[in-house]
Amino acid sequence: MTLQQDRTGQDVDRTDLVSLTIDGVQVSVPKDTLVIRAAEQVGIQIPRFCDHPLLAPVGACRQCLVDVPDAGNGRGFPKPQASCTLPVAEGMVVSTQATSEVADKAQQGVMEFLLINHPLDCPVCDKGGECPLQNQALSNGRGESRFAASGGVKRTYPKPINISAQVLLDRERCVLCARCTRFSEQIAGDPFIALVERGALQQVGIYEKEPFESYFSGNTIQICPVGALTSAEYRFRSRPFDLVSTPAVAEHDACGSAIRVDHRRGKVMRRLAGNDPEVNEEWITDKDRFAFHYAQQADRLTYPQVRDTDGSLRPASWTEAFAVAARGLAEAGAVGVLPGGRLTAEDAYAYSMFARVALGTNDVDFRARPLSAEEADFLASEVVLTGPWDGAVTYADLEAARTVVLVGLEPEDEAGAIFLRLRKASGRGTRVLAVAPFSSRGLRKMNGTLVPAVPGAEAEVIESLADRAEHGIGADTVVLVGERLATSPGALTAAAALARRTGARLAWVPRRAGDRGAVEAGCLPTLLPGGRPVADAAARVDAATTWGVRSLPEAPGRDADQIVAALVSGELGGVVVGGVDPDDTADPAATRAALRAARFVVALEVRETDVTREADVVFPVAPVSDKAGTFITWEGRPRPFEAVFTNPGSLPDLRVLAGIAEELAVLGRGRPLGFRTVADVRARMEELGGWDGERPRPAADPLRPSSLGAEGMALATWKQMLDLGSMQDGDAALRATARMPVARVSAATYDVTGPTVTVTGDRGSVTLPAEITDDLVDGVVWVPANSFGDGVLAGLASPGSRVSVKGAGA
Amino acid sequence: MTDTLTPVLTAGWADERSWTLDAHVRRGGYAALDKAFAMGPDAVIAAVKDSGLRGRGGAGFPTGMKWSFIPQDNPNPKYLVVNADESEPGTCKDIPLMMASPHTLVEGVILSSFAIRAHTAFIYIRGEVLHVIRRVQAAVAEAYAAGHLGRDIHGSGYDLDVVVHAGAGAYICGEETALLEGLEGRRGQPRLRPPFPAVAGLYASPTVINNVESISSVPSIIAHGPEWFAGMGTEKSKGFGIFSLSGHVQRPGQYEAPLGITLRELIDLAGGIRQKSDGQRHELKFWTPGGSSTPLLTAEHLDVPLDFEGVGAAGSMLGTRALQIFDETVCVVRAVLRWTEFYKHESCGKCTPCREGTWWLVQTLARLEKGQGTEADLDLLLDQCDNILGRSFCALGDGATSPISSSIQHFREEYLAHLTHGGCPFDPAAATAWADRTVGANA
To answer: What is the pTM of this model?
Structure first.
């Protein structure tokens, strides 16, 4: 818990150190360090409940009382002091429970008080076995209860109460440390829980019309020092001492949050936040915490399948499936590869090499979402091969920046750890600007400023940023561009130009955990692994030599949209598809048509999907819990993890691709990939390394089609953190805490449409409750991208395009 | 009345419609304003310092020194907050003062605000006393209408607005930082210090918080000079104060006298301990010098000088000079249990020792009152008190232990008598005001 303090401590100038004596041991710590933390430095654990290193001190529980015979001025404190609120002073002398009878008695007294109204129901409490109250009652309390012996009557409550669909509160267990309420107010900015009533009847409460719906509510459960807060998901499921804990990396966004997976007999029971001060500190989103049942659903694929003569899919052995897949691909003609954005870097590398070496094509693109050629150029010239080691933007830089500009990125929905870090930074003076159609709740919580922009017209707004002195764009600015900007012509180019012109630093924040790794691994039609441009002959030779092939295809490949088009037109005959949901792609109908039109489809999936139902060969692949791998964060920071489970029937994508490649080589196409395990691939990636030649120059500013004069309203949309995404399947309580889908309209529009609107685009229409959004840019309507039906792309229109908005009654 | 009394604040209480502006002006009210405006703020602070006025809310912190802590280079506005959340059991001086002469308070607020360069002042009045809130509101409105408040007061160029704020009914809001929380619209719970209110108080701005009586004393100091004020009282506890006698005396009420007067003198002024129907007098058994949070004293302390040092030396605190007088008919265990129930009810819940400790103390005391338990329970009680006193977040928890530890110190035998008697050996009716009236006498 104190790692961060240590790190900041290391950076502090020696002259800023303060020396004090704790239990006779001299220790020097940075000034303003709290005594409780200084004591940890010398290995003394002072018991505590309300204290938390990432929350402001409150001094409420009084468990950490210590004796201070000398406050550093020669005089002592007459009374024991709360070490969690007392800053160190030069020459201070502190006696903790280890050396002072006064401190020990004070702590024993507080512990005894804490237990009088506590039910002592450890045998049936979820926290039993990992409970700070239980542990510290044993280490710093008395064995027998004088309260019970003297006939005391405890305060009781009906139990438990739901403070949200996911979080339950057992009030009689609560020690009123206020960690949960302080977290919600100070860290998440969702103060939907508060202490109410007084005295021993004080309790955590919610306002009746506002349940505790926060994307970060699960953190309160984890930091609760007793069993007062539990999740609907984990309550009564298991005992901590039956669990095996494995460190892992969260797979739901590009933040790379450290998590801890607790599992029992091959099943994940729960996930907790890991502690990584450089990345997610001690917090994770509720999606990272609760959304893991997707891998345990009934539609999980467990064996390979091949299309039978009667047209149905039948089970097959791995060897048969490899052979059938290879033969089918060999006979299909030209083949494209759509790996999807959820891969580990190792799997992405396998797809990239499989396309080039086994299939002899550059037709590979991980982007299972609206994309552009401009984006591919941007990734090649500005993003690939950057990382914390060479000065790329990190989480710490977000905190240090004077200004952070968000473009095409809604961190609270799309990158929770960035949101929390920015919110922390904004409380310390960092200014957040968002180029967006309206001030989102997340932006307001970051005290941010809206720079209004119609979706699709971001480029002009980005260009004008530097001209406005009040924005203060300069070398101490960080510009974060989201992947959604790909659909806004010229925006990425403008952002790169802005950075070059002003000295501001730029980072690209994709949505999915595997996106950045796929860029590095070269799952793009114009990039080979390690940032090697396909167009650069030397780069091709470099890769070909390492891969042991004579040459690599020279022509840049088709991007995902072009692969879809080529399948429909018949230019491509086969396709290898990873974790791609057609409804996520730029044109879902076209993608479905392409799958139907393809002569041969190989699908690698965790669960049955629309793609596997169309496929000729289906390979079950491992979810992240069943394989080792590496996610690369938006910063470019590798986050390796090991497998949680050893599951011989659940192979990583790279093993499947290696199997197909070996069969293809037998048929005379390409050559084997030369690896079969994650460790092999890691070694190959290491061997290949990054490209040290010239980076591709940024492409020319693309044409910006003008949408002026077009009919209807511009459609703004993004995916909310909690929505209908298939990786949230299986956790009803989590989904119940999602925000209600609404259409955001201006007050003027609302006056015309009334409280329910029907939004109609070229792909369908949807009827949603309307919500007035005060600063929504004129002529824009916003809807969540995947919170109803098949989502916006399949059922409404393309983001940025024109839609009509009418009152539902009209 | 003898000349032991020094009626200053209480001088006009018996006047016709004493609470009106007219009545106040007839006694020279608001005259001190022009004098103060001519002196300038620093001179007003110096005068209050020189007078030796110490906080009348209980703690006795020198008022002028408190004012001088306000950092005048802080760019934030400065605020004066008057603590009128009088809720301590036994304490009843501010409420009669505000009822009888609210303009004395308002005048004091103007002078004090001027001294600390505040342009907004708040009077935080206990929510339960609606009649007092209305009276102070009316006085403030009168003062505005007469030009004593608002823009350019008396042509001095000094502006002041006064806000009368009604509390929501919590003893804890008498604690100054909890009061600030309440004033800002949050739950009344004490704040972590530092920062102290003088640096970051109301709305994180420099704030002076003073008791009603302290502020009300300022006009007389300005009018008559600090030497006049310092000429009363004792060496370190200067001036006068309102002594509120309640309970078993013949004439309970407010007695304004110099600090250092003794309870013996005050009881004489109040007509002595109450008489029985046969003309005999009851005997003083125990008393609180400054409300229930100050350790109780006994008849042997009758000659203790009632100033900060004297009462401190006797093992208690001067507090709010709320002298609750109990005669020999009162069961000390019963009295202490009632007080402890009050603390349990009023504990804000923020810190463990006070929240849980008062919950348990009540249970232990209730059993003792019923004659259940053993002598060891007295040691348990004292140990509980030891674990609360000095371990709580604010002084509420400390105060809750005072009646218990002091009563066991002075009346241990009486506690034990409950155990041997198998219940309370006292007749609770004997302590009541109608105790000596028989049914026949009433007829």
So the answer is: 0.95
